[in-house]
Amino acid sequence: MSTNLSAAITITSSDGLDPELSALITMKAVAFESSVRLTHGDQQANAKSLIEVMSLSLVCGDALNIHTAGEDAQLALNALINLIQHYRVNRIRNN
To answer: Contact 10/25 with Cβ under 8 angstroms?
Structure first.
């Protein structure tokens, strides 16, 4: 059964959607069969394309909408939300 889901999340990293977070989002997205799209205002990006994700140029406090569609849409959505919400926390712990 194919599922379409979406969620809004706020970028909390002080560096915004920096190259490292963009790469992590892309790597996470390609692990799923579902399509994953990111939107901010009228901008859209395929989350499986690093260039498209980076082109969103989000800063701390910006809202990001995540849209997933496919068999593992819920898993993909949850994984990306978790990654973005905990990015700054995990980055501090690893340093």
So the answer is: no
